[in-house]
Design a protein that fits this description.
The protein is of the alpha+beta class and 172 residues long. Helix content is 19%, strand content 18%.
């Protein structure tokens, strides 16, 4: 579970109960489930999703997947799970992703890799100093002055509905 302490562990049922309570109360969960290795933590789910061998099966046996996503990573498949009102800072992943909206809506601003120079990359260049879901024209003057290149970024807004599956290539 992503939180202040990456060593926090809890049962999936406890986490799902927490998500349900947050959704029913109109709040948000204090953290989300992040980078959970399916083979190690949810082997039954990995087997159901990817066939016997879970996240390390090569190639996945689920109908329609074939080898369209290239070779599987040695460390297997990871999953992330959160509720509404979770906001993730602008970033890119160095691997392909499938994003599935189970219920509600999921809003994303997707920047093409060519916009990276306008997003003020930080640390390992996978993260950005850009304020999420805020266009350059909406920024206070002092922030807009500091981050002038943001005005040149051209995000594509995507809103996923229940059942929508979005493929994100490397770098998006």
């Amino acid at each position: 579970v992503f939180a202040g302490d990456p060593k926090i562990r809890m049962r999936l049922s406890t986490f799902l109960d927490m998500l349900e309570a947050a959704e029913c109360e109109g709040g948000s969960a204090p953290f989300y489930l992040g980078k959970v290795p399916l083979d190690a933590e949810l082997p039954e789910f990995a087997a159901a999703l990817l066939g016997e061998g879970g996240g390390r099966a090569a190639p996945p046996t689920a109908p329609g997947f074939g080898t369209c996503f290239g070779a599987l990573k040695e460390e297997g498949v990871y999953t992330y799970l959160g509720c509404g009102r979770n906001t993730t800072p602008a970033h890119f992943d160095a691997h392909e992703n499938l994003l599935l909206c189970l219920c509600g809506q999921k809003r994303l601003w997707l920047y093409p890799p060519s916009d990276a120079k306008n997003l003020y990359p930080v640390t390992d260049f996978t993260r950005s100093a850009a304020v999420p879901f805020t266009g350059a024209a909406e920024l206070p003057d002092e922030i807009a002055e500091r981050y002038q290149l943001l005005a040149h970024a051209r995000p594509r807004e995507v809103v996923l509905q229940p059942g929508d599956l979005l493929y994100l290539p490397v770098g998006w």
